[in-house]
Design a protein that fits this description.
The chain contains five helices and 25 strands. It is mainly beta.
């Protein structure tokens, strides 16, 4: 239903005399639900809350929550916000987060989606079944999406492996998708015959080719880790060693640096933890070692930050290798939210050195597991601010 147009003369004089920048600063500090209600106060506030200035100010103050969905209910995703990070009590952890919103990830398409990553309030998703997989950027708060034009079929004729990344450049604040494609000689996937990298800037409407050398292979995850204006992937340097490849979203160049020491490369997971790049080493049967790069880009700053004793239920190996876990969030009291096998969520108490299931909203089912779980910072950025993009609503 269309909102009735208000007469500006009927709005209280108080609302009209406050400078817009002050109103933006005040409203950006409110909870998201309250901000949505403020749109109904008066026309001037409604218009102000739809500006890029408000979206940027709100994002700078917004705190990351969680977005998750279940394998048995993959279309319905939920976003949680943390309401109190201090004194997280495992006996009543449900008091420290609340449901912000939920939405249908299929966005009106009759397809199953895969949630790949989140960057500054926007989600990067793709279809799972069709080939090639259509790519989408969406904002679950504004309920808008952009379908990225696909050119993958024209890029290769032999078997290929495609890796993605999504993030925001440091200075120009441009949202960019990165696609790295390795074409192999045959289905043995042993010899690379061609490697290319393309970048898509939201608002530009086209994929661009960028230099990519040397051709690293065997990216450990389909999606890069976004941190500090860069994308990161854990890759094979040799048959016995790993490296971290970094793509600068501002300069659009690649660089590499070394991870901390580890015992078994198949048990290493790369992620971001707070403001630090994180390597989680699952090699040991007894402990999980969490390394943080305290000074970004400085290989000498890798620090063994946490050593977590594995509980009996977290040592089962799969047929494909060791069971891996990695941290998602560290609370202010040192407690850690972690993911195991990309399916199960649990909390580690820094005080008691024990773990417990994180039963979000009372619907956790260990037998089914999570289909997706990411840190996500809600944003009011409208996708219609990106020129040359066809924006849909859901």
């Amino acid at each position: 239903m269309r909102e009735p147009r208000r007469n500006p003369k009927s709005e209280p004089q108080f609302f009209r005399i406050i400078p817009p920048e002050i109103v933006i600063d005040i409203l950006s500090r409110l909870p998201i639900r309250t901000i949505a209600e403020c749109k109904c106060v008066c026309n001037s506030w409604r218009d102000l809350l739809q500006t890029a200035e408000f979206a940027h100010t709100h994002l700078s103050k917004s705190v990351a929550g969680l977005i998750f969905g279940f394998k048995w209910d993959f279309r319905n995703l939920k976003i949680l916000e943390f309401v109190d990070e201090l004194g997280l009590d495992f006996e009543s952890h449900d008091l420290h987060y609340s449901l912000l919103t939920k939405f249908n990830s299929s966005m009106g398409f009759n397809q199953r989606f895969e949630l790949l990553s989140s960057a500054n309030g926007l989600l990067f998703t793709r279809f799972l079944n069709p080939n090639p997989n259509p790519l989408f950027i969406c904002n679950p708060i504004t309920r808008e999406y952009i379908q990225i034009p696909s050119t993958e079929n024209s890029l290769y004729s032999n078997p290929a492996v495609i890796t993605y990344g999504f993030g925001v450049s440091r200075k120009t604040r441009q949202y960019k998708l990165v696609r790295v494609l390795h074409e192999y000689e045959d289905y043995s996937f042993e010899k690379i015959t061609n490697s290319v990298c393309h970048v898509y800037t939201l608002g530009a409407g086209i994929w661009r080719s960028v230099a990519y050398a040397p051709p690293f292979e065997n990216f450990k995850r389909i999606n890069g880790v976004f941190l500090n204006g860069n994308l990161h992937w854990l890759v094979d340097i040799t048959d016995a060693s790993l490296g971290i490849i970094c793509f600068d979203l501002e300069m659009e160049v690649f660089s590499t640096f070394s991870p901390p020491r580890y015992s078994e490369k198949y048990a290493v997971v790369l992620s971001a933890l707070g403001d630090c790049l994180c390597v989680c080493d699952n090699s040991s049967e007894d402990d999980v070692v969490i390394w943080l790069m305290k000074e970004y880009g400085d290989e000498k700053s890798w620090t063994k930050q946490f050593v977590i004793r594995k509980s009996a239920e977290f040592v089962t190996d799969s047929d494909s290798g060791p069971a891996t876990m990695y941290p998602v969030k560290v609370f202010k009291d040192g407690d850690i939210l972690m993911v195991w096998f990309d399916m199960y969520v649990f909390c580690y108490s820094n005080k008691t050195k024990t773990t417990i299931d994180f039963d979000m909203l009372g619907v956790y089912d260990g037998a089914l597991g999570f289909g997706a779980l990411l840190l996500h910072t809600p944003s009011f950025l409208s996708l219609r601010s990106f020129q040359l993009e066809n924006v849909g609503s859901f």
